[in-house]
Design brief:
A: about 210 residues, mainly alpha, disordered N terminus, B: mainly alpha, 2 domains, 3 helices, about 75% helix, Cytochrome bo(3) ubiquinol oxidase subunit 4 (chain B), membrane (chain B)
């Protein structure tokens, strides 16, 4: 991976994340500031998630006689959600590359729509999971453990929902204004959010689902 | 519709970056399948299992940062790396402190809360 070619690419980067490069020189400076600012926001969000993870761990013993992870979670469903989110990260990467190298609206829109579909599928499986948990008596008010679970995992789902809405808004903006500079920076920032949410999900499936079921 | 014609160098770059995303996908896939497979099918001792899950998760986070978010060790990217590392430092202090204080409290006063 560290061929001279990649290194030359990295040598030109002006902000973290995928750089659009010299072909998109317009408003490069504002883009640099906006993307870095978005990274700072993302990192503050990471601290929020980190503390909810810590809260969850401290509440592991607080099931108060209610259902615990072994009764509530299903490995298969967690695996499906993990795969959907991982593939959606790659399809968003393909969308970013379509933007960077082709400025090809059709290809970009197709990849973004695939990503959106995967995001919605993820939400569908997550809600189905919560529904079956409710059926088994796993409601947030049942125990401290379940309160901690329902403040951590649905918060991630809420982020994914927000990202999907943002994606739809960007598609609308693109339809009205075309591929102008605000749309391009929007896609760059949404890409960071999308990949970031996948990283948070690694923590959730490892600690909450795999840790709870092992 | 503006489909830009790629020159030779850009076409090569595009290929490299595409391959980089696919490498990231392959590595992440392996690092996901190992812990899921162990939990689903294998009969491993608990502590070993937890350490493997944790190790795979950590490795996968690094894979995602490197291949999907383009955070590398390149010299002109030190600011972003510093931002990420500083956040990790804050996170370790906050989370580590929370876990230390609360589990110490449980041990001394609320043994029923120990998982």
């Amino acid at each position: 991976m560290s061929s001279g070619n990649t290194r030359a690419l990295e040598g030109n980067s002006r902000h973290p994340g995928l750089n659009l490069g010299p072909a998109h020189a317009q408003e490069e400076d504002t883009r640099e500031e906006m993307v870095f600012g978005f990274w700072v926001f993302m990192m503050s969000d990471l601290i929020l998630f980190g503390l909810l993870f810590a809260t969850y761990v401290t509440m592991l013993g607080g099931t108060a006689g209610g259902p615990g992870p072994k009764e509530l979670f299903e490995l298969k469903s967690a695996f499906i959600q993990t795969m959907i989110l991982l593939v959606s990260s790659v399809t968003f990467g393909m969308a970013s590359l379509a933007l960077k190298y082709r400025e090809d609206k059709a290809r970009l829109v197709v990849w973004l729509l695939v990503t959106l579909a995967l995001g919605l599928a993820f939400l569908f499986f997550e809600l189905k999971d919560f529904h079956s948990m409710f059926d088994k008596g796993g409601v947030p008010s049942r125990s401290g453990y379940l309160s901690a679970f329902f403040s951590l995992v649905p918060l991630h789902g809420l982020h994914v929902t927000g990202a999907c809405i943002w994606l739809v808004a960007l598609l609308g903006q693109m339809a009205v204004h075309g591929l102008d500079a605000p749309v391009k920076t929007g896609i760059l920032r949404l890409a960071i959010l999308w990949h970031f949410l996948d990283i948070v999900w690694i923590g959730i499936f490892s600690l909450v689902y795999l840790g709870g079921l092992s | 519709m503006s489909t830009r014609q790629l020159n030779e160098q850009e076409a090569r770059e595009c290929k490299t970056e595409q391959r980089s995303y696919l490498w990231g996908f392959g590595l992440a896939l392996v690092l996901t399948l190992i812990p899921f497979g162990l939990v689903a099918f294998a009969d491993v001792e608990r502590m070993t299992l937890w350490l493997t899950i944790g190790g795979c998760a950590l490795a996968q986070v690094i894979v995602h940062l490197r291949f999907f978010m383009h955070i590398t060790l390149a010299k002109n990217k030190r600011e972003d790396l510093l931002l990420v590392l500083f956040t990790v430092l804050i996170l370790v202090i906050l989370c580590g402190g929370t876990l230390w204080i609360l589990f110490d409290l449980y041990k001394r006063m609320l043994p029923g809360m120990m998982p």
